[in-house]
């Protein structure tokens, strides 16, 4: 079997799909079409052959997108894979159409609906493009039931060709439970992610400023991740004033989960948040928005708190509610979260994905 994986991010593919890729390599050859943004050596090291393919992830230039479609068509024609596997919106649409035209089985991963589906002008266009791209897809994988139900309701894909995955899954051995830290020096709230509007950072920063003014050194806000240029000045101002501690991008965030008391992600849309699964696996309570891809990681009131998206007051109330708990209540909330995410194990994702693939084997999945 020869598998062609088409994605828009080599680093993320390695971070969240390497267990699946290892299983595919045990069954055949794996070729990866991707922009080179990190972890290429690791992907090559386990046996993948890489094809550097630039993708304008956020752009909406028709000429560039058509060029990308033609590139995918050429790659598929040259490689002649037995199956094509796609991740993220442009590979899903343009790689999917190219695979369909070549008559090759293809398997699409809808990791989230993204900002395009929040735009009233773009949403109908993208929905129509997805409907065309998925017409002949063998299987469409979803990371949350809300996205799956929306695609079925809009007749983008038939229900019998969908599979619901527990996100990308979380390796609970790699993110083991860690004892809840001392609160002697105050509570540490942690945000991990790209600093951009869609991750809810406007609401987070506003709530942090208000809580800092009320609690002073009893609360701390750690922020890790790249920031978009539009947030450069604000991040610097909040850092200089002591409202947040900006940590930049870190490849290994496990020490941050271990040292924090609560993981906060007020995102507007997610497929299934890896940050929430990783934080809960470490035994940390969660505060996140009541949206598909976030709410699944939380049992509201038991493993953390849900708030309304794009609502500073709702986020502030949830964070203040958490701060009002006793230390033992917070510790037990984290323990309950660890138990909850055991159902989101990494190998459950691998097994369900492999089961839908051609050339599947009865061979036991390696753990």
UniProtKB/TrEMBL annotation:
It comes from the Bacteria. Transmembrane segments: none annotated. It holds the Pfam family Glyco_trans_4_4. InterPro entries: Glyco_trans_4-like_N (IPR028098). Residues 18-166 form the Glycosyltransferase subfamily 4-like N-terminal domain. SUPFAM superfamilies: UDP-Glycosyltransferase/glycogen phosphorylase. Gene3D superfamilies: Glycogen Phosphorylase B. GO terms for molecular function: glycosyltransferase activity. Keywords: Transferase. PANTHER family: GLYCOSYLTRANSFERASE, SPORE COAT PROTEIN SA. This is Glycosyltransferase group 1 family protein. It comes from Candidatus Colimorpha enterica.
